[in-house]
Amino acid sequence: MKIKNLLPGLLILFSPFAFAHPGHWGNHGFESGILHPLTGVDHLSVMISVGVLAALFGGRSRWQMPLSFIALMIVGGILGVSGLIVPGVELCIAFSVVAMGVLLWRSVQISHQWVVALVMIFAVFHGMAHGEEMPLNTQALEYFSGFVISTSLLHMTGMAIGVTVLRLSVSGRLVKLLGAVVALLGGSFLLS
């Protein structure tokens, strides 16, 4: 076997997309639910970005975006657990990372209603991935409780980042930089 034939296979194994959903640590419901959003860079980046956007928009968005995300993520989780097969869930999740980066880049220049609608759509796909990857012999309520708590903490982390960025005099540049990093990360998922 030639090295040049082995290299593409090794690159695929080490791509960020391959690690987006590796099976996750923990083999019990609550533990697995808590760890699922924390061990996938795609989930981390989107859920923190939702919190940042919520802080940037302020007002009712501060709670509307995160709570809408969580509610629709639960719906997606139920769809995933029920065995509904939707092709391209991982592709949609990768696209959601790119889109969240673009939304951060554009920040409040986009309509609040459009941003909330996109956040809700993305939440369904993230929830489906959570539900599809629920460990066997796990109680759904425990698992869902875990990933809802974890997601809430990630949203609050994003909100804290957003509030901090707003206090800095160069906040516009920082948000654009954060958006660019998130979009590039999502792009690497799409190219993998």
From TrEMBL:
Keywords: Membrane, Signal, Transmembrane, Transmembrane helix
Transmembrane segments: 36-57, 69-102, 114-131, 143-168, 174-191
Superkingdom as given in the UniProt entry: Bacteria
Protein name: HupE / UreJ protein
Keyword Ligase in annotation: no
Manganese found in the keyword field: no
Annotated coiled-coil segments of the chain: none
Taxonomic source organism: Vibrio mangrovi
Signal sequence interval, chain numbering: 1-20
